[in-house]
Each structure stands twice: as C-alpha cells, then as structure tokens.
Amino acid sequence: MTTKTYAGTSVDVDAEGFLTNADQWTPEVALGIAKELGLQLTDLHWKVIEYVRADTKAQGQSPGPRRITVGAGVSMKDLYTLFPKGPGKLVARVAGVPKPKSCL
Amino acid sequence: MSQRKLAVICSKGSLDMAYPGLIMANAARMAGVDAMLFFTFWGLDIVNKKKVEHLHMSPLGNPSVPIPAMVAGLPGMEALATKMMKADMDKLDIPHVSEMLDILYQSGAELYGCQLAMDMFKLQRDDLVPQVADVITAMDFIDKTEGAQIIFI
After folding, report:
1. A36 lies in a domain?
2. N or C: which end of chain B has fewer CB within 10 A?
3. Is residue A70 part of a domain?
4. What is the pLDDT along chain A (104 residues), one digit of tens a residue?
C-alpha cells in the first residue's frame, strides 16, 4: 500500500494510483489528482465525477464509459473530450474509486 | 514515452469474429491508446450498412460449439445459434455491433475500409456506415499505423 498526498490530505493508493479507500476522497483531493493528470476540471467534469461516485457507492463497482454516458447524461464524444487520455481509467482515478472492471 | 497505438485488422464477418476486434479497439481507447481499425475481406460486412445488423454466427466447423457437426449443419441451426448468442449478449447489456461502431467513432478511433475488398465485393463508399473515415489501401493502412501494435482477426 502506497500513500500519496494531495492538497494536504494523505490518501491510500494502489500501484496504478487508484484510491483504495473512497472515503478518503474530497473534492480537493480530486483537484490534486486532476492536476497530476494535466486536467482542468470544469462543471461537466464534476457532473461526471459526482455520478461515478454515487453509482459506485450504489452498485459496489465503478462504471465504465458506456454506463457513465447514460447515467451522467454526457455523450461518448464529450467524455473523451473531458478525459482525452482515456476515460476508462482517468474518471475513476479522479473520482477516487477503483479501476473499472467493465470492458465497455 | 511515445503515444501507444493499436491497429486492428478485421478480416472476418461473422458475429463472433466481429466483437473481439471491436472490444479490443474500444478497450484501447478507454485506456488512452490510439486505435485504428481496417476492415478487409469478410470483415467489410461489419461496416456494410446492409449487413451490420444481420451478422451471423455459425455453429458449423466450430469445435467450441457443443453441437455435433451433423446437427449443426441442419437448416435453421445458424439462425438459432445467432439468436442464442444475441440473447446472451443482450442479457449482459453488450451493445449491438452498430452501437459498438458508434462508440468507437465517438471515442476517436479511426475506421477504414479496404480498397481491394471494396472492389472485390463491388461496394461503393455509400454502402458503408458513416463511421468509416475513409476507404484506403493496405499500404496506406500500414503507413498510418507506423509504430502500432497489430491485432489480426
């Protein structure tokens, strides 16, 4: 288990940088992770992040892009514009949830 | 580190051979890897407007299908196998091929038709789904995918 510090908050992360305890996540931590990934978070990013956190809590597993587009009401194209280096992993990184197991 | 690229060559037009390439290319895009797909020979059926919704899966000559070959060859068995596979995929909420093509297109994957196969099957650009960016030669595809990892299906 590795620990990383974002915005003064210490969080536990796995080898790929995903938070292992979603409860340690705060919006400030998200900003810190986003900065590390070179992302400037907009309102639309937050809408996606909030949906992913809520859905993960409800389902017990983090959603893949297809589920996110339907649930958060953004197009696949938008999702790739928001997270150009790969929404499959990066949304979960910023939202502080595990790497999705979904292939879609 | 240079940008990773994946090149997927789809040469088969059956339902069970269409998905692996589309899923792999989609996984690449999800992980931030560039993806380019080349549809050639029977693989053109996957992006053929008239055929994309009617791809079949054949139980004949497929050792993974637990039906004796003599039975698998009977009329109607292919339709039955296709129906069963589609029902199983619907249960898992796996998108239909046409939706997979749209997901790939929106994700920024590049889809190309093979010029030689187009000529062979007497197809025009208009016969292909709109998500196909262009019809190019095999050599063009090799040029475009310089440095890419290649999957041939």
Report:
1. yes
2. N
3. yes
4. 799 999 889 999 999 999 999 899 999 999 999 999 999 999 999 999 999 999 999 999 999 999 999 999 999 999 999 999 999 999 999 999 999 998 89
